[in-house]
Design brief:
Number of domains: 1
Radius of gyration: 20 Å
Strand content: under 5%
Number of helices: 12
Structural class: mainly alpha
Order of helices and strands: HHHHHHHHHHHH
Number of strands: 0
Helix content: over 70%
Length: 285
């Protein structure tokens, strides 16, 4: 009898652990897919827990972002090394080079974007608070509006500027736009930066590349700022790994796809899921 009870408890514990691991992997994949596509990871990481009644802690959310941050650094490792070396040569040896120029553009542009993002995020938190239904409505409208804007901009913008020909003013404008994404869930960091980049006539692939590189210091700063709240456990590890692997795959996919495709499909998806959220919210009311 005692053996049967212990066996039953053992099985229950492992089933619970397996369920938590599967949930973490699922959300990790969602984070990896939506962090880099212009469809808003924050929207999806609020949507699925809202639908299924899951609770996501700040620590777990931070862990998922660590996974996608690792994906950026791994995928663009050679690029970062080249840019850092170029930046050093530009400062210490006064040797002009395009990689060093881009590196310092990214550094300079991140500072005002980080300050504005922090201020806007605090303001929106005070307005919305912990009202999940209000938050989901905001997310829905942000998805729809930005989806329409992304489609119109991408369809009409010229493709004249390549990544290596960027100017500081262009990088600053794209970087500062990240503040709006940090403030309003559903806008999408990649979505707003790619949209602004297209307004500034960057080609689609260069828009995505700039968006990814600008996100790295912003996400890194957020991770460092909140690291004291991070608590690691087994299921978190699986979530982080899932977001890391799926993140790398999505970066590669999007850069390859944008050499020949457009942002139209992502804009349509944003509108569809935004309308679905509004419909579900109405039903729940």
């Amino acid at each position: 009898m005692l053996f049967a009870t212990l066996l039953y408890l053992f099985i229950c514990i492992w089933v619970i652990l397996l369920v938590e691991i599967l949930k973490s992997v699922f959300l990790g994949v969602i984070q990896g897919l939506t962090e880099f596509l212009p469809v808003s990871s924050s929207a999806h990481l609020n949507f699925f827990p809202w639908v299924f009644g899951w609770e996501i802690t700040e620590s777990f959310d931070l862990g998922l972002h660590i996974g996608t941050l690792m994906a950026i650094f791994v995928y663009f490792f050679k690029d970062f090394v080249i840019m850092v070396k170029g930046g050093g040569r530009l400062v210490f040896k006064k040797e002009k080079n395009n990689d060093g120029k881009i590196f310092w553009y990214l550094v300079i542009a991140t500072i005002p974007a980080g300050i504005l993002a922090l201020l806007f995020e605090k303001m929106v938190d005070l307005i919305i608070g912990g009202n999940i239904n209000a938050l989901m409505i905001v997310i829905a409208f942000a998805l729809i509006i930005m989806g329409i804007v992304l489609y119109i901009v991408d369809k009409n913008a010229k493709q004249k500027v390549r990544f290596e020909n960027l100017k500081l003013a262009q990088v600053l404008k794209v970087s500062v736009s990240q503040a709006l994404a940090a403030a309003v869930p559903g806008v999408s960091r990649s979505g707003i930066t790619m949209t602004v980049a297209r307004i500034l006539k960057l080609d689609r692939e260069s828009s995505a590349r700039l968006s990814f590189l600008l996100s790295a210091p912003m996400v890194l700063a957020a991770v460092i700022f909140n690291l004291n709240n991070f608590k690691l456990n087994l299921s978190f590890l699986f979530g982080i790994l899932a977001s890391f692997v799926s993140g790398i795959l999505v970066i590669k996919f999007l850069l390859d796809y944008l050499r020949r495709g457009s942002y139209k499909q992502f804009a349509i998806y944003r509108i569809i899921i935004g309308v679905a959220i509004i419909g579900l919210a109405v039903i729940r009311m």
